[in-house]
Amino acid sequence: MERILFETDPDRYKHWKLEFDGATAILQMDVQEDQPLHDGYVLKLNSYDLGVDIELADAIQRLRFEHPEVKTLLVRSAKDRIFCSGANIFMLGLSNHGFKVNFCKYTNETRLYLEDLVEEIGVHTVCAVNGVCAGGGYELALACEKILLVDDGNAAVSLPETPLLAVLPGTGGLTRVVDKRKVRRDLADVFSTVAEGIRGARAAKWNLVDGVYPRSQFEDRVSDQLQRLNESSSRNDGNDPIRLEPLGGTYTDTTIEHRFVRVEIQPEERTATLVLQGPGSDEPTDAAGMRAKSQDLWAFRAFRELDDALLHLRFNHPTVGLLLLKTEGDPEAVLRVDAALVAERDKDFFVREIVLYMRRVLQRLDITARSLFAILEPGSCFHGSLLELALASDRSYMLDDPDNVVTVGLSELNFDVLKTHQGLTRLETRFYGEPNQVEELRGRIGEALEPEDADELGLVTFIPDDIDWEDEIRIAVEERVSLSPDALTGMEANLRLPGPETMATKIFGRLSAWQNWIFTRPNSTGESGALTLYGKPARAEFDWRRT
Amino acid sequence: MPDCNPSSRSGRSWRRIVSTIDHYDKIPNNVNLQRDRKLQRALEKWQPNFLKWWMTMGPEGFQLDDIYLRTAISADSDGWAHFDYVRMPDYRWGIFLADPVEGRTIGFGDVSDVPAWQQVPGEHRNALKRLIVTQGDTEPASVEQQRLLGQTCPSLYDLRNLFQVNVEEGRHLWAMVYLLHNYFGRDGREEAEALLYRNSGDVDHPRILSAFNEPISDWLHFYMFTFFTDRDGKFQLLSLAESGFDPLARTCRFMLTEEAHHMFVGETGVLRVVQRACELMKEHKNEDVRALGGIDLPLVQRYLNFWYSTSLDLFGGEVSSNAAQYFGAGLKGRAYEQKKYEDHVILEDTYVVPTPGTDMVSEDTVPMRNALNTVLRDSYTEDCQRGVDKWNRAIEKEGINFTLSLPHVGFNRRIGVFSDQPITPDGQYISQEDWDSRRADWLPSDEDQQYVASLMTTVMERGKIANWIAPPSKGIKGKPFDFEYVRKYAEEK
User: Fold this and answer.
1) Which residue of B has its CA nearest to A535?
2) Residues 5-64 (B) with a CB less than 8 A from some CB of A
3) Mean pLDDT, range A13-18, rounded to an integer
4) Of A26, A268, A537, B144, which residue has the fewest beta carbons closer than 10 angstroms?
């Protein structure tokens, strides 16, 4: 399969139009049906594939950095009487299991980014539903703060996956209906089995939407809503934008090369090594300096590159089972960067956005379905924000060699904003049974912790000495990659995020797991499964035994 | 509404039903309405709303006049066409299903040879409801579209035909509402209400299908509509008459007998316009029909182009997974499924569907089941062509050198693969600019419609007819053309 690229910009969008009207951004979906990401299907009725969603994710990211003036986002369709008919079924039918799963994960991440807009930076989101709004279309709407539906006797919101395709609305649909919109569960049950969906006043009564208006009043009501939200936005005025230039990475079958991040893939071993280069000693420490350096600022650029590398690994290198995470650089420099971010983030939206972006990238790492081993070697800099890479890993190996001392260290950021999808820091997650340990560690901020201390404090898994090191690592890697990739995916997903559930963990855990199970079952994807046969002349046949 | 009061709920139904039961005797039916409490309860609320709708959205004026109308009073061969004078609001809108076929089995799809369903299978409840609502929505829509036409009628004969079409469309609405009321519970009752709530051309609550939101502002539009758009109805009814859901199949079979008259009105209406055009061409030295107050043949062709292309949109997408599902599930067959075809499973067959190429119309071979909208549409086109041939024979007989023709299926489409493609009536791709600049050559312009409107003067005298149309070759039910088909209320006094 052709390599998928994740960088785009509004001038290159095929499927969306991003326009601005004062403090309102208008994101119009206008999917070009003859421009799918891969051959073999047509994107009819504003249905989407990964290509459409990559542009959506890009637009959301740009609203945060390039458009600090925006206070509300209107998501709508450029097509008459069609909002969005969801993920393209024929694309799903043609895709292999791994792609389907990663596609859903990516779209789920993007929906959460949409929700982050209001929760993190006070940009309100309104979805104007002018017609057909089915499946993933409604899930997109659900990710917005307000949903306004035209009431013309035809327009309906629906989650037809179960009755039509024998799968689930897996992009957060089921979860958001009951958890976010708090639709009564019996009504949600009815809604999720009616293929044609719910229209008009009933959609509002069941809280599936926030308002229904006749066609003649619809535009005015949407404008009213936007104006009200513009006035209540907490986003500050007067910030200068930060332009996002392309990263321009180079990609081959075995390498991903960026300025600060490089990945080398060992196809035979089914492993990849990701090395993240730490900051230099000249990183600015005040907001003005950071802004001047803009996208060349290490904290920003390195995490953008990490984000891009993770997506490439997910989609373009499906057989890599184990990712070895390494860092190179000066620990002191990392801690200086962290201290500057903490000190300046309330003064400049750009600094604040960088920290929030670090959080999103690390969350993407948390739910990447590859085994993650952090390798802490001489010359590494797993301190502060970069220690999060080790804390996100399934295991960490730290060399204990008195001649080549490796250290780890903590910064304020480890205790603060870089939270997982559960709303806990990685330290809180790690010491879920020992909350006092987190407090104790707070007292060690800024120290360079040597292997024995790190081990004692529970920050690393193993500290082999220099004699054992190579063998330990080799055997651990060989053992890991010999295990079933499916079992590992499930095992890691269960162990990585202990503790409380949030809507996001339910989506990535419960909803996705059920969806992925159903995807492999004959009733959906078998020879006579409903998804397989969708659009084909024959009808589905089910195995009626419930499990 | 009295039943808004919850405290009267328990005692409500029986007394009221007893008090209105006489009323149900006036509704001709063969569904045992007099004993069906479920249906009575539903109609109790719906019927007054229907009458209110008829008075506000039905024919403007003429409601007190006596019209010589056909009423179905039973489903047998004697009863389905009972002729008499009746005031439209007193029309006995009845509920009729064609007689049941003993031991009927489903004749197509994956459920062939299973006994036909007498109740809605839960599995297909929503799909069937959708099919019925979509069909039902078209019936009152056309009444609304035509509500002002009576005021410009070319003759009493035509006026009567208009009202015949209107009351029968009203009855077809009843037929669909009967199915919704009797088989779809509360949802069905709500959908039945909504059928009266949506209105043709209403910005906020339009009819479901776009052809039914187009205004029918003159009689040429009316004839074209009854010829082309009602004929779509015929083919939809033919395919639903095959349905495995027996009450739907029987309802549609009965509706088809009435629908035939509507298409007759359209076919003969256009024929008479064409005949008159030919007469006037011969009368005028330069064949200038407009100089003599007639409708010229090129203008007829433009109206034809508009209504044919608009009606093709009603068949839906050329390749449709819904159509495949409906067929496989035994919900909607092909027209004349039993008579015309041998293979009723059609899992192996394919069908050639026209599709847009880069700069020409090309073809695609798709599984037959997915092409069923196109299959039905192609049968429709054949049927249309037969009517056009009749018009052309009339032109030829008059010795005029002009041929009316159906435009290419890709011309002027809004739905399906040809949607918004710049294709000429003879199937050529041209640039969008060229298409836009030649639009008035192919479709009725404002000027065309103003001209036709200028001809629409009311002719209400017995035996008289407007100048732009020829009289019919015969009257209704053996009556002469100068029969008093409409008796004005004022004259009675």
Assistant:
1) B321
2) none
3) 98
4) A268
| Helix intervals (H) in B184-245 | 185-197, 219-224, 230-240
| Residue B36 in tokens | 């069906």
What is the pLDDT, as a whole number, of residue A410?
A: 98
Candidates A164, A536, A541: best to mutate against B (most CBs of B within 10 A) is: A536
What count of other Cβ atoms lies within 10 Å of the Cβ of residue B64? 12
**Which tokens in the block code for residue B428?**
């050529």
CA distance A362 to chain B (A): 42
Distances (CA, A) of A130 to A138, A144, A214, B93: 12, 15, 10, 37
**pLDDT computed for residue B34 by the predictor:** 86
Distance (Å) from the alpha carbon of A534 to chain B's nearest alpha carbon: 7
Q: CB–CB of B203 and A195 under 8 A?
A: no
Q: CATH number of the domain at A10-232, please?
A: 3.90.226.10
Domain count, chain B: 1
Hey, is the C-beta of A80 within 8 angstroms of any chain B C-beta? no
C-alpha distances in Å from residue A158, one per residue of A29, A162, A203, A262, B70:
18, 11, 10, 43, 44
**Facing residue for B347 by CB, picked from A195, A196, A538:** A538
Q: What percent of chain A is predicted at pLDDT more than 70?
A: 100
Which parts of A90-206 are beta strand (E)?
A: 124-129, 132-134, 146-150, 156-158, 198-199
| B367 touching chain A per CB within 8 A | yes
For residue B460, the one-letter residue type is: M
CATH superfamily entry for domain A250-488: 2-enoyl-CoA Hydratase; Chain A, domain 1 (3.90.226.10)
Residue B314 lies in a domain: yes
Task: Give B-chain residues touching A154 at CB under 8 angstroms.
Answer: 206, 208
Distance from CA of B322 to the nearest CA of A (A): 8
Helix ranges restricted to H, B284-329? 297-312, 321-328
Total number of residues shown for chain A:
547
Cα–Cα distance list, A282 to A162, A261, A290 (Å) = 56, 19, 11
DSSP string of B10-47?
HHHHHHHHHHHHHHHHTS-BSS-GGG-HHHHHHHHHHH
**CB within 8 Å: B208 and A153:** yes
The interface predicted TM-score of the complex, written ipTM, equals 0.78
**A217: chain B residues, CB-CB within 8 Å:** 204
Chain B residue with minimum CA distance to A90:
B321
Domain with residue B298: its CATH number is 1.10.620.20
Contacts of B204 in chain A (CB under 8 A): 151-152, 214-217
| Cβ proximity of B479 and B157 under 8 Å | no
Say yes or no: A535 contacts chain B, CB-CB below 8 A: yes
**For residue range A448-490, what is the model confidence (pLDDT) as tens digits?**
999 999 999 999 999 999 999 999 999 999 999 999 999 999 9
Interface test with A, best of B112, B125, B126 (most A CBs within 10 A): B126
Annotated domain spans of chain A? 10-232, 250-488
Its domain, for residue B92, covers 15-492
A197 close to A153: Cβ distance less than 8 angstroms = no
Cα A138 from chain centroid (whole Å): 19
Q: What percentage of chain A reaches a pLDDT higher than 90?
A: 94
Cβ of B203 and A163 within 8 Å? no
B393 in any annotated domain: yes
* Chain A stretch 137-156, residues whose beta carbon is closer than 8 A to a beta carbon of chain B: 151-154
Residues of chain B with pLDDT under 70: 1-25, 490-493
Q: What is the mean pLDDT of residues A367-381?
A: 97
Q: Is residue B121 part of a domain?
A: yes
Instruction: Give per-residue pLDDT as tens, A26-81.
Output: 999 999 999 999 999 999 999 999 999 999 999 999 999 999 999 999 999 999 99
Q: Cβ of A151 and B204 within 8 Å?
A: yes
Q: Is B449 among the domain residues?
A: yes
* pLDDT above 80 for A201: yes
